[in-house]
Write a structure and sequence with these properties.
21 helices, Rossmann fold, 4 domains, globular, phosphoenolpyruvate carboxylase, domain 3, about 675 residues, alpha/beta
Length: about 675
């Protein structure tokens, strides 16, 4: 099949056809992927089919999408193309797959794992490829996996390694890194170019009218609502929070209840309680955190959703708590004493969220046309599911023939059920073919997904950056489409949207400024930034290694975060596959219990999940049981523990931050010690 490019596409790919490393910057719907397929075919053709192309994506659904809709469709007659994602068995023989195919489409993490692997059947080197295509390349920064791969590339290039691949980056919006000044925005664009080792960033100059005709912009409008006149449900929640504050004897800042600022306060309070072994402080802070969540839900969706969230939290607490102390009984009583009144308020229509009335108006307006199709972008999985329930319960929306579905991320979550990769693909397919005509989605649908043209895109209760704004707007591609921002008049969402508009213009100016630089000045700056990046990575690595040598593992103890029971030492912990921290002490079983069965969104080569591992004494969740090569072993999550070091007690969010060395897992030794082999 012939690959046809528009004039503006040919314009931006030209340097790549000459073998140069570039970034292509075209708006969503502008055909970046098609342009990269064209470059791929030209690249392989000129090498007599001896080249090797890796197409890297940052989200699993994009693997099959790029394979089915673009690369395989146009290249299958000439070359072998293969998709590899997290649930593919092919990733276990990655090196062999690379040898046997011309084009490999995979998530960046799979390539990174293969670059680091010491197993022959999995290991590859960057020099095994002749072209590396990085989709959504604006993520090539900081600690993102794209940047880790490109960091290795740049270091090899500095060492004059021969045979490194050509680099092609694709993006609709490089962003500004939160810049409020032109110089900051320009510095960010240059940093992305340096990280990508790009000799230039390409956007259309000569065929802008053709590009604008091909990718029409939606009409943007602000659908604003007035502040709730009365909110007795929210007021009752705040009264309950003040009751807890009084019990705890910690003053509350009334104006901050129900805000992100307040959430940060109680998160810090919970951390202090854990470190100080002050269970009263920790438990109260945890409950206040949940009440604050319910206020945020009340501000976004229905009152009943906020009530259900609290009810389910309390129900889970009652089920999992092994022993109740005075604080537990007080906290449970606060909810019990207010439960009936809260439920009564939650179902009183006159107090309902005015944003939902506005959302209903917009949907009814747009879906009066039989071929309408739309996406609502919202912040959390929880609000996604709540909005879906609301739509299905609304008679007027159902009468308008709205067929809604939800699309969320595949990662596991403690609050709501994840979607499997297969479930994601099924929802996207249903939306594409019209079985679903309204998609309610988190940010997973913002970037890259080839979702059929919509005539209405709504950002609902969102505070994000300019990249997300541009990506979401780009989903409204149908003629006469609308891009609506639903927010409260004068609220933070509307302020952020205005800021994003400013930053979008700043980004465009910054890109033009970088493109207008003298090539010599540009390359000098890129090399300077790359040198700074390499030094920064080395300093970071040295700091990490020094951190790991600070303490001896047998001097580091772990305590249950909830009940402060001392349960193990760091010397009991070993690491599987560089990420899973398991306790290998055969006596550890007296401290925990295993319950239920964990369902993860993908399968793994050597292990499968068992049940939830929790504290035998208090019921606090600690992690999960891994069935590793048929042997059960507890895998622990560091955030559920307080760590006692010789210098004092601390909490950690990541295992890699714990300042001591832990050994690699030895399967044979573990079996001998635990199974009496």
């Amino acid at each position: 099949m012939q690959i046809e490019l528009r004039d503006y596409q040919r314009e931006v790919v030209q340097p790549a056809l000459e073998g140069k490393n570039i970034i292509i910057c075209l708006p969503t719907g502008g055909g970046k992927t098609r342009a990269s397929v064209f470059v791929t075919k030209h690249h392989l053709d000129t090498r007599g089919g001896q080249g090797k192309v890796a197409v890297l994506v940052n989200k699993v659904p994009l693997v099959n999408q790029h394979y089915e809709n673009e690369f395989n469709q146009f290249l299958k007659t000439f070359y072998k193309v293969v998709p590899i994602s997290g649930d593919s068995e092919l990733k276990e023989h990655f090196a062999n797959v690379v040898r046997r195919n011309h084009v490999i489409i995979c998530t960046a993490q799979i390539l990174q794992n293969a670059l680091n692997s010491t197993e022959e059947e999995k290991h590859v080197d960057l020099t095994d490829f002749s072209l590396l295509i990085i989709d959504e390349c604006h993520h090539t920064q900081k600690d993102a996996v794209y940047n880790t791969i490109m960091g290795q590339y740049i270091e090899k290039k500095q060492q004059h390694t021969k045979g490194l691949p050509q680099i092609l980056g694709l993006t609709a919006s490089p962003g500004t890194d939160g810049a409020n000044t032109f110089e900051h925005a320009k510095a960010h664009i240059l940093q992305i170019c340096a990280n990508m080792d790009a000799c230039m960033i390409m956007s259309s100059k000569n065929y802008i009218e053709q590009l604008q005709d091909t990718v029409p912009q939606p009409v943007k409008r602000y659908d604003l609502t007035e502040e709730r006149q009365r909110d007795p449900f929210g007021d009752r929640i705040k009264k309950m929070m003040r009751t807890i504050h009084s019990y705890l004897d910690v003053p509350s800042v009334t104006g901050n209840l129900g805000s992100q600022i307040y959430e940060q306060t109680v998160v810090q309070l919970e951390k202090e309680g854990a470190i100080e072994s002050d269970r009263k402080k920790r438990a109260c802070a945890l409950y206040l955190w949940k009440y604050n969540d319910s206020l945020l839900i009340n501000d976004t969706v229905r009152m009943i959703d906020a009530f259900t969230y609290l009810k389910e939290f309390y129900s889970n607490e009652e089920k999992t708590k092994v022993v109740l102390d005075q604080t537990d009984r007080f906290l449970l009583r606060v909810f019990k004493d207010n439960k009936e009144e809260l439920l009564l308020l939650a179902v009183t229509k006159e107090y309902e969220n005015p944003k939902l009335n506005k959302l209903e108006e917009i949907l009814l307006e747009r879906f009066q046309f039989s071929n309408s199709r739309g996406i609502i972008f919202t912040k959390t999985r929880q609000s996604t599911h709540a909005l879906l329930d609301w739509i299905k319960s609304c008679a007027r929306l159902m009468a308008a023939n709205i067929k809604a579905g939800s699309l969320t991320g595949a990662g596991a979550s403690s609050q709501t059920k994840h979607m499997t990769q297969q479930e994601q693909l099924e929802v996207i397919q249903k939306f594409r073919y019209g079985n679903i005509n309204l998609l309610i989605a988190t940010s997973v649908a913002e970037e890259g997904l080839d979702i059929k043209e919509c005539n209405i895109v709504i950002r609902y209760g969102l505070i994000t950056n300019e990249i997300a704004m541009v990506q979401a707007s780009g989903r409204a591609r149908a003629d006469n489409s609308i891009y609506s921002v639903v927010a409260q008049q004068g609220g933070r969402e509307i302020q952020r949207e205005y800021t994003n508009e400013y930053r979008e213009q700043l980004m465009k100016r910054a890109i033009e400024a970088v493109q207008d630089m003298q090539q010599r000045d540009y390359l000098v700056k890129i090399k300077e930034l790359q040198l700074e990046g390499m030094i920064s990575r080395k300093v970071k690595e040295q700091k990490y290694n020094a951190n790991k040598m600070e303490n001896l593992s047998h001097d580091v103890r772990f305590f249950c975060r909830n009940c402060n029971e001392a349960v193990c030492h760091a010397s009991d912990i070993q690491i599987i596959e560089g990420m899973h921290h398991v306790n290998v002490n055969p006596d550890f079983h007296i401290y925990y219990k295993v319950s239920g069965k964990i369902d993860l969104p993908r399968k793994f080569e050597d292990w499968e999940p068992g049940g939830t591992v929790s504290c035998q004494k208090c019921g606090q969740t600690w992690g999960m049981q891994m069935i590793y090569k048929s042997v059960p072993i507890p895998s622990l999550c560091i955030k559920n523990f307080v760590v006692e070091l010789p210098t004092g007690r601390r909490t950690f969010k990541q295992w890699k931050k714990v300042p001591c060395q832990m050994e690699e897992f030895n399967y044979i030794e573990f079996c001998a010690a635990n199974l009496s082999l």
